[in-house]
């Protein structure tokens, strides 16, 4: 691409607004967990697994009908990198009050060196056909907070990009 083409493309792009997406709280989940188990050191860092033992979730103001429990059997795979960053890959199911089972995959990056602590995620959702299928058509991001010492659990807040 020539510099002239680049300038023309930028001029064209500058005619459109740079819109930052907004967010809307989709749901919050209090997820109970077992103790972290070490899996040994791999080529990219120390590996751990945290079994998910249950919990509850409830929809945000725009989705009050979305509520139920976190199913037992999921797990959070963790990688502690040499630079101190923790990467989490949690895979678990939410069972809505109507019996529908939704699969959640939550990719979290945590930087404990930041003040306040940085814990942000990209959340992928798979829902079956039916009233919750709209979840398959949205992009979600999230935050993660520990509920210790009061509970052996984490609070996951999931936001729909709007």
From TrEMBL:
The family database entries (Gene3D superfamilies) matched by this protein are listed as:
2.40.160.20
Any idea what this protein is called?
DUF3237 domain-containing protein
| Organism (species) | Pseudaquabacterium inlustre
- What is the phylogenetic placement of the source species in the record? Bacteria, Pseudomonadati, Pseudomonadota, Betaproteobacteria, Burkholderiales
